[in-house]
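Technical note accompanying the year-one report. For the benefit of new consortium partners, we illustrate the data format agreed upon in the data management plan: each record pairs a sequence with a structure-token string. No post-processing was applied to the example shown here.
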Amino acid sequence: MANTGIRYWEALKSVLEPTVASQFTAIQHAADLAARALAIGRRLYIYDTGHMLNRELVNRAGGLVAITPLQFELALDNTIAQEPARERPAPTEEEIHGYVNYALTQAGIQAGDVVIIGSVTGARVLPVEVALQIKSRGIALIGLTSKEYSAFAPVQHSSGKKLADICDVLIDNRCVVGDAILSIPGLDVPVGPTSGISAATLMWMLCAEIVDRQISLGKMPLVLESMNLPGAMYRNRDKALQYLASFNSHV
């Protein structure tokens, strides 16, 4: 079918425009939390259970030096040469609890920091466990998830909660159930997801609002330049050192 790409673009706009309009108040509240934390020398962390935000927002031109990635994984490799891969049982919730507790402790996240958690449904055990432990440490939590998709997904954590039930500020990316939105004749599943593009748009809006608030608070934001510009590597390095010195002076 001709113009299939344009059809996806039109479908995408039909999701993005109402999403931006409906979530701007939540973005402002989230920006208030983050800007106040940065003003007193705290950190802004991002933890994404998918494939998008940790790469999109961290160390990007036009992005904040202060955005700190929170990534951790538990890997096990005890096979011998030529041994077929063995199927292992999924970790129990108790094991995940200990694993998350260790990761958060080693990361040095403290009360006064702000954490953004991105999860399309916010229903799986891991993001919920991270969210619960973040809140138990007195840390502000911003959730990026889809209320529609979350309502469809079954509860998996023993607490009976999902990310949307735990966060201080919820930003709804309005991802539809199944994520993809474009039907193509002859194909039995839709193509063209919305969650990644929506998440990136909402998070860059949040960053812009944080920068604006930092300036209003008299705290000049540290923003990265494109590494393709002459001298940018050194200027970015100096900004990172400046941020770390400011952070360390408040710890």
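Partners are asked to follow this layout when depositing records. The chain has a mean pLDDT of 89.
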